Amino acid sequence: MISRRTLLASLAAVPLRAQHQASASPASTQPPAGPPTGAQSGTQQAGKVFTSEVKVVNVFATVRDKKGQIEKDLKQDDFTIDEDGRPQTIRYFAKESSLPLTLGLLVDTSDSVRRLIETERDASFKFLDQVLREDKDVAFLLHFDFEVELLQDLTSSRKLLQNALGQLSESNGPQVQRQGLGGGTDLYDSILLASNELMKKQTGRKAIILLTDGADTGSKSTMTEAISAAQKADTLCYAIRFADHHPILDPLCGFCGRGMGRPSGGRRPPNPPTFGDGKKALERIAKETGGGYFEGGKKESLDDIYREIQDELRNQYSLGYTPGKGEGPGYRAMRVLTKNKNLIVRARGGYYAL
Fold first, then answer.
1. What are the residue ranges spanned by the domains of the chain?
2. Does the pLDDT value for residue 53 go beyond 70?
3. pLDDT at 261 over 80
4. pTM of the full structure
């Protein structure tokens, strides 16, 4: 297993050794058959950009009507794509319902959501049991508070994932076991590390599910850097926001859940976030990576939200195009629409050209 210290070391620009295949199924999944893509050495076939010889942009999209129902029977001619405002020709199209899935579950175990951990854990048991096909899909479990720790590496085993989830509880969570080291929540670091050290090496459909209140009080990376890492790894982020409006009062650091924890290890003193800030952050992360944002414990239960995410991941469209030549490296804004203006498309808003 990749230790907490090893993960944190990667933030200091130390490359992580490829250890995470030990408990996983085969290291990479194969994307759907598509048009010839030429040389692909060292790149993701289902990613944003291939080699300098051939560039193919591939994007997964989910389409819903105004009532929120998923549209499952659209054709290639129903879609349009533009890049930096320039129309693109869709050269590859497929409905993706069975393509292998790489899934990451990132669970906030800081004091601000400790009371909610058992609810998150129990619903996650059901979700992983329903969504993972042990012959095709892989998943990992990572938790974060004032540090980031991988509890279960990439694996297709439901049993191993359930054992890792069993480590999470209100009374015996990882942060509780390390009391006295100071409060904090490294949300952005967890996204960056999951994207760079796990997702970037995979191909096919990739999604991260965040269970958190959205407050970040200690990350070394910024929100923009976290979003960029997810985009470069071609990973959707689904954010499920849980907010405990009565955070636990810690005698050592006060209301740690509100960002008032004591600084430790030379970390910068965090600025106290508001609950509204967490919502805005998660909405932005979801929107810019092509995922979705959900409010836990309000209109929908976590079980209902998980069912919605599962339905979405199993009913996506894959579209591909070849951008024009002569463009330099950098970020490219991308927009996927349908010709039917009454339909709503969810897809990532851009990619990074090499």
1. 99-313
2. no
3. no
4. 0.76
